[in-house]
Design a protein that fits this description.
The structure holds 2 protein chains of 2 kinds.
Chain A (H helix, E strand, L loop, with lengths): L3 E4 L3 E4 L4 E5 L10 H9 L7 E7 L7 E7 L5 E5 L21
Antiparallel strand pairs in A: 1-2, 3-4, 4-5, 5-6
Chain B lengths: L11 E10 L2 E7 L3 H7 L6 E2 L6 E2 L12 E4 L2 E5 L10 E4 L13 H5 L8 H4 L8 H11 L16 E12 L3 H12 L4 E5 L12 E5 L1 E2 L7 E5 L3 E12 L3 E3 L12 E2 L1 H10 L7 E6 L2 H4 L1 H7 L3 E7 L8 E6 L2 E7 L2 E4 L2 E5 L2 E3 L2 H6 L2 E5 L4 E5 L5 E3 L27 E3 L4 E2 H9 L5 H8 L12 H11 L4 H4 L13 H5 L12 H6 L3 E5 L2 E6 L3 H10 L1 E5 L4 E6 L3 H8 L12 E7 L5 E11 L2 E6 L4 H15 L4 E4 L4 E7 L3 H8 L14 E6 L2 E7 L7 E7 L3 H11 L5 E3 L2 H10 L34 H10 L4 E7 L10 E4 L2 E12 L4 E8 L9 E6 L2 E8 L9 H4 L1
Parallel strand pairs in B: 1-7, 8-9, 8-13, 9-10, 13-25, 15-21, 16-17, 16-21, 30-40
Antiparallel strand pairs in B: 1-2, 3-4, 5-6, 5-7, 11-12, 12-13, 14-22, 18-19, 19-20, 23-24, 26-27, 28-29, 30-36, 31-34, 31-35, 32-33, 33-34, 36-39, 37-38, 38-39, 41-44, 41-46, 42-43, 42-45, 43-44, 45-46
Helix pairs in contact in B: 10-12, 16-21
Classes of the chains: A mainly beta, B alpha+beta.
Chain lengths: ~100, ~850
C-alpha cells in the first residue's frame, strides 16, 4: 500500500497518513434483531472491486471522509465529506451511513 | 599492471589513497574503485562461488554480478567493482575457508557434482536420518553469502527522506538525459537518478542529479532510491525509466572462469582505469556493440587471438578451459585458441524490471530475441535500451556445450545453477518457469536475474521443445538491486511524549516508564511509602498525560448521550460524571470523567493512551450524525496534577481562591479557579480513593505549579507519587484500568458496572449489544479478590475450577494499607458472590482467594466525600 489518497480538505497525500475504518455499513434503525445486529457488527461484503469506505486523515486535518476505492487495484474513484444523517442529502452519496466496530 | 596515462581515463594519478586487503596495503588513485585497485595490484580471483566455491573474478564490473562481493569495513556483500576506494578501508574476501587461492570448500567443485544437485541437502543428506543434525550444523555454517558480525555495532546511520518530483528519470544514459532535458525545457521539475557518478558529470543545472539506485517502482509512482545512507522515497508524477540494457552472458562450459568478461568490464577496466584486462583475448559477441571492445583492447596492447561475430559466424560449441580457475584457452567448434581473456556477450536485454514492477507487461520479441516491455501504465515511460532499443543482435543459442558436454556450464552464477540442474528440474516435472525458479533458485541470487533470467528461459524453451514466448518470464518484484537492511529499517524513531513537569520528576529521582508514547514516573523509589503517604497525609501525581477533549456546541449534550451508555444531558453545570466509552458491539474502549463546564460545554478526559483513539472515535460519529458541536483536543495544551489525601483540602485552600468546604466544592464538582495565580480547572475526583482534586491548567505553568504545590504542602507532609503507587491505590478502590482489567471482549455489564448503562435511553452506541448481553445472561464477571495467605498472584494468572482454567487475574498488588494481597479477576458468574472461593495458580501451585464485590478500601466512599 503506497498509493495516494486525495483528502477532501488537504488534497492528495500518502496513504500512510490516513487510517481506514473499512467499508461503509448501514447502522440499523429502531430495535434490530440479533441477526440484524450481528450482521451489522460482524459481516462485511468484502468486495473485490469498487468499495465505499471510511477514512480518517489521522496525521493531517483529523477529519473523516468517505472514499470509493477499487480493492483490487487501489484506484481511488473519488473522496468526499460524508453527508450527515438528517441533512437533506443531495446526489451522491445517498445513504448517510454509520460506523460499526 | 597499470598502463601509462591514457586519453579519457577517469583517474587522478596525483591523488593516492591506501586501503587494506587482508591487511596488505593497496594503493589506489582517486577515481579507482576498490575492485579496480585490486585488479591493478594483480588480484584476479575476487571471490569463491556460492555452492562449489569455484574461483571467480570480475565479470560485469558494473555492480550487477555477485563475483566481486567482499567484506568492506565489516559490511558483507559489498560489490567492490563499483565501491570507491577510500582511505584506510579494510577489505576482506568472503565465502572462503582458507584463502581466495586455496579454499578448502573448493573440494565441492571436484567431487560434489553427483552429490550436490539442486536441493541436495534435503535429498543426499537426509540419510541416515539421525545424522541430519550434524549435516545441518555444517550446512548452516557454509550456507549463504557473507557473514554478519553479530556483535558489530551500527556502522552507518540510515535515514529516510520523502521527496517529490514532477518527472523522475531513472538512468542518466544518453536517452535518459535526453528525456530529462526535454522535460526540463518544458519547465518541469526533473530529477535524474543514476548509480554511476561519472554519468552525472555535466548534467544540466536545471535538472536535479542524484547519485543512487532506484530499487523498485511501487504503487502510486513511489520509487525508493538507495542513495547510500539515505533512502529517498520519491513520489513522481511521471517516471521515465532509462535503465538501459543488461549485457547477457553466453552459456557454455567454463563460462564462469576467471578471465571470462562481459564487454562492459573491458570498457571500464581499460577505458576508465587504464588497466590491461588480459594479454591475449578472444571475443565472442552476438551484437556489434560488444565488438567495439576490440579496438579498445588493442589500444591496451593486448593481442586479439580470435573474434567471433555470432551474427555472421555459426558456432555450435564454445568451451573455456582453465587452470586453477583461470581461463587458459577456448575451444571454438573443436579449434582450440589459447587466451587469458575471453570477452563474451549474448547481446543486451532491456532492463525492464522497474517497468514490470510498475505494472507493464513484458513480451518476447522472437525476431530480436529480447523481452520488451509493453502496456506501460499511465505516468510511466520507457526510453532507450530499457524500452527495447538495444540495437541489432543475433539470438544466441541456449547453450554452447556441444557434444562433449564436459565441464560445468553455468546458467546462474549467483546460485551456481548449471544447465544440468535445470534439465534435471524439468525431468522432475517442474514444468513452469515460476516453479523451476523456486526449485533451482535460478534468478534468486544477488544479481536478481539480470544475468540469468533470459538464459534460463532460453534453456527451458529448448528443453521443453517450445519457444521463449511460451515459457514467459517470472514475476519481477522489487528490489531490482540488493538493498542493505539498515536502509530499509531506517533510523529508529521512538516518539516520546513528555509532560511539562518531566524534568522535575527526573530531578526527584523518579524511575520513568512508558505508557503508550508517554514517559511517566513509575515511582520515586518507594511505591508502598508513596501510597501510604496518600492515605496518611497528601500526595501529588502528574496526570498531564490524560487525554483532554473540549466538546462545545448546542448539541454537545445530545452527542455525549448518544456516545456513552449513561446520561450527560441531565447533569448540572459544574458537575462531573464517570463515563465508559463503548463500541456498538458493547466493548469497552476507554473511560474517563466528563465535567459539564457550561450549558453547552463538556470537558472529557480519557485514558493516557486513549486520547487519539477517542478523538478519532468522536470525530467519526459526528461525521455521521452531523451534530452542531466542536471537538477540541487540549491534551497537550493543558497539564494536570492530582493532589490526594486527607490533607488535600488544606493544600487546596493554600493554593486557590475556591471555597474548599464540602458546600463549596463537593465530591464530583468542577470549579474554575486560580491556583497560585494560574487559571485552573479544579475537578474533585477520587481515582485513588482519598479526598482528591485534579488541577488542570495551561502546560507552560507545569513546573511552576508543581514546585509551588510541593513547597506549600511541605509542612503537610506532601510527597509526589508515581504510577505504581497509583495502581495500588486504585486497586484498593476496585477502579478498573481499561486495557489492564478489560480486553477487546469486555463490556460494561460484565465488568460489573451495570449502574452505568441506561437502557431507558432511546439509543446509544452499544445499546443493542448490551441488551443482548442482558438477555443471554452473563458469561463472566469482573470481581475483586483477596488472597487468604497474602501471596500476590501473577497478573494474567489462571483461576482453576475443577482442575480446568476458569478465569484469569487481571490486576494484583500487595496493599500495605489493608495488609492484604488483593486483585481483580474475571470469573464465571456463579463465582461472582461475596466470599466465593477462588483457586489461583501461583508458580505451579494452587493458592486460595475470596471474592469481594465491594471496594476493599472505604467501600462507602466516606473518604471521597469527606
Amino acid at each position: 500500500m503506497s498509493f495516494l489518497l486525495p483528502c477532501p480538505h488537504c488534497g492528495p497525500r500518502d496513504v500512510g497518513e490516513f487510517s481506514c475504518a473499512g467499508e461503509v455499513t448501514v447502522r440499523p434503525q429502531g430495535s434490530p434483531s440479533l441477526r440484524e445486529l450481528t450482521s451489522y457488527l460482524y459481516f462485511r461484503r468484502n468486495v473485490a472491486g469498487p468499495q465505499r469506505e471510511w477514512w480518517c486523515h489521522r496525521l493531517g486535518c483529523e477529519q473523516w471522509f468517505q472514499a470509493e476505492r477499487d480493492t483490487r487495484t487501489n484506484e481511488v474513484f473519488g473522496t468526499w465529506v460524508a453527508e450527515p444523517a438528517g441533512a437533506a442529502a443531495p446526489e451522491a452519496p445517498p445513504v448517510p451511513d454509520t460506523p460499526a466496530v | 599492471m597499470r598502463l601509462p596515462p591514457q586519453p579519457g581515463e577517469r583517474l587522478q594519478r596525483d591523488r593516492e589513497t591506501t586501503f587494506f586487503f587482508h591487511g596488505k596495503p593497496i594503493t589506489a588513485f582517486q577515481g579507482d574503485s576498490i575492485g579496480s585497485a585490486l585488479f591493478a595490484a594483480g588480484q584476479r580471483v575476487f571471490s569463491r562461488s556460492f555452492k562449489y566455491h569455484r574461483p571467480r573474478g570480475l565479470l560485469c564490473c558494473r555492480g550487477q554480478c555477485p563475483n566481486c562481493m567482499m567484506r568492506v569495513d565489516g559490511v558483507p556483500n559489498v560489490r567492490v567493482c563499483v565501491e570507491p576506494a577510500r582511505e584506510g578501508a579494510r577489505v576482506e574476501a568472503q565465502n572462503v575457508w582458507g584463502s581466495l587461492s586455496t579454499d578448502l570448500l573448493g573440494v565441492t567443485d571436484k567431487i560434489g557434482g553427483p552429490f550436490t544437485p539442486v536441493g541436495f541437502y534435503y535429498r543426499t543428506m537426509i540419510r541416515p536420518r539421525r545424522a541430519w543434525p550434524l549435516y545441518e550444523k555444517f550446512l548452516r555454517s557454509v550456507a549463504g553469502l557473507g557473514k554478519v558480525d553479530k556483535h558489530g555495532r551500527r556502522s552507518t546511520r540510515f535515514d529516510v527522506e520523502h521527496r517529490r518530483a514532477e518527472v523522475l528519470v531513472i538512468g542518466a544514459g544518453r536517452s535518459g538525459l535526453a528525456a530529462a532535458e526535454r522535460y526540463a525545457s518544458e519547465g518541469k521539475h526533473v530529477v535524474v537518478v543514476e548509480s554511476d557518478p561519472l554519468r552525472l558529470e555535466g548534467v544540466d543545472d536545471a535538472i536535479e542529479a542524484i547519485q543512487g539506485t532506484a530499487v523498485g517502482v511501487y504503487e502510486g509512482n513511489l520509487v525508493p532510491v538507495d542513495a547510500g545512507s539515505v533512502l529517498l522515497r520519491f513520489r513522481a508524477e511521471r517516471i521515465v525509466v532509462a535503465a538501459g540494457g543488461v549485457e547477457q552472458p553466453l552459456t557454455f562450459p567454463g563460462n564462469d572462469l576467471v578471465g571470462v568478461l562481459l564487454p562492459e568490464a573491458v570498457r571500464r577496466l581499460a577505458g576508465r582505469w587504464s588497466l590491461k584486462p588480459g594479454d591475449r583475448a578472444v571475443v565472442v559477441a552476438a551484437d556489434g556493440r560488444a565488438l567495439e571492445v576490440v579496438p579498445l583492447l588493442e589500444s591496451t596492447g593486448a593481442e586479439i587471438a580470435e573474434v567471433v561475430d555470432l551474427r555472421t559466424q555459426r558456432v555450435r560449441e564454445i568451451a573455456a578451459k582453465g587452470r586453477r580457475g583461470r581461463v587458459t584457452a577456448v575451444r571454438l567448434d573443436g579449434e582450440e585458441v589459447a587466451c587469458d581473456l575471453l570477452v563474451m556477450s549474448g547481446g543486451r536485454q532491456p532492463a525492464s524490471a522497474l517497468l514490470a514492477h510498475a505494472g507493464a507487461s513484458v513480451e518476447y520479441d522472437p525476431g530480436r530475441g529480447i523481452f520488451v516491455p509493453t502496456d506501460l501504465p499511465e505516468g510511466i515511460e520507457a526510453v532507450g535500451a530499457a524500452a527495447g532499443d538495444v540495437g541489432p543482435a543475433t539470438v544466441p543459442a541456449a547453450t554452447y556445450n556441444g557434444a562433449s558436454g564436459k565441464g560445468k556450464c553455468f546458467v546462474c552464477i549467483c546460485e551456481d545453477v548449471t544447465d544440468k540442474d535445470l534439465k534435471r528440474a524439468i525431468a522432475e516435472g517442474f514444468d513452469s518457469i515460476e516453479l523451476a525458479k523456486r526449485y533451482t533458485t535460478v534468478t534468486m541470487g544477488p544479481c536478481q536475474g539480470k544475468l540469468c533470467h533470459v538464459p534460463s528461459i532460453r534453456l527451458y524453451a529448448r528443453e521443453n521443445e517450445t519457444d521463449e514466448e511460451t515459457i514467459g518470464t517470472t514475476t519481477a518484484r522489487p528490489t531490482w538491486q540488493p538493498v542493505s537492511l539498515g536502509l530499509l529499517a531506517g533510523r529508529p524513531h521512538e516518539p516520546a511524549q513528555r509532560t511539562s513537569i518531566h524534568h522535575r520528576h527526573k530531578e526527584l529521582g523518579a524511575t520513568m516508564m512508558w505508557t503508550g508514547t508517554w514517559r511517566r514516573p513509575h515511582s520515586y523509589g518507594d511505591p508502598p511509602g508513596e501510597a501510604k503517604n496518600v492515605h496518611d497525609a497528601v500526595g501529588v501525581i502528574d496526570v498531564s498525560t490524560l487525554g483532554k477533549l473540549l466538546v462545545t456546541g448546542p448539541d454537545a449534550a445530545a452527542f455525549l448521550e448518544r456516545l456513552y451508555p449513561n446520561r450527560f444531558g441531565d447533569m448540572k453545570v459544574g458537575r462531573i460524571r464517570y463515563g465508559v466509552l463503548g463500541s456498538d458491539a458493547g466493548r469497552i474502549m476507554d473511560d474517563g470523567t466528563i465535567a459539564r463546564l457550561a450549558e453547552e460545554q463538556y470537558y472529557v478526559t480519557t485514558t493516557s493512551t486513549g486520547a487519539d483513539a477517542v478523538l478519532e472515535w468522536f470525530e467519526w460519529w459526528n461525521a455521521v450524525w452531523g451534530l452542531e458541536l466542536e471537538i477540541a483536543n487540549v491534551t497537550g495544551a493543558l497539564a494536570a496534577v492530582n493532589i490526594a489525601g486527607p490533607r488535600a483540602r488544606d493544600l487546596l485552600a493554600r493554593l486557590t481562591d475556591v471555597d474548599v468546604s464540602n458546600e463549596g466544592i463537593a465530591y464530583l464538582d468542577a470549579r474554575a479557579a486560580h491556583a497560585a495565580g494560574v487559571p485552573a480547572l479544579v475537578l474533585r475526583i477520587g481515582f485513588v480513593g482519598e479526598l482528591g482534586y485534579e488541577l488542570h491548567f495551561p502546560s507552560p505553568y507545569g513546573e511552576y505549579l508543581w514546585d509551588t504545590i510541593l513547597e506549600r504542602g511541605r509542612d503537610l507532609g506532601i510527597r509526589p507519587f508515581g504510577l505504581e503507587p497509583q495502581r495500588i491505590l486504585r486497586l484498593e478502590k476496585m477502579h478498573i484500568l481499561v486495557g489492564q482489567d478489560t480486553d477487546s471482549e469486555s463490556n460494561a455489564l460484565e465488568a460489573s458496572m451495570p449502574w452505568i448503562v441506561k437502557f431507558d435511553k432511546d439509543d446509544f452506541v452499544g445499546k443493542w449489544s448490551l441488551e443482548q448481553v442482558q438477555e443471554r445472561g452473563f458469561r463472566e464477571r469482573l470481581v475483586g479478590f483477596e488472597m487468604t495467605n497474602g501471596v500476590v498472584p501473577p497478573e494474567g494468572g489462571q483461576i482453576v475450577i475443577d482442575g480446568r482454567p476458569g478465569g484469569r487475574v487481571t490486576s494484583s498488588r500487595w496493599s500495605e494499607e489493608l495488609g492484604k494481597a488483593i486483585g481483580l479477576a474475571w470469573v464465571p458468574p456463579e463465582l461472582a458472590a461475596d466470599g466465593a472461593r477462588l483457586a489461583i495458580k501461583v508458580n505451579g501451585s494452587i493458592e486460595h482467594a475470596e471474592v469481594r464485590l465491594r471496594p476493599f478500601f472505604d467501600p462507602e466512599g466516606e473518604h471521597l466525600r469527606s
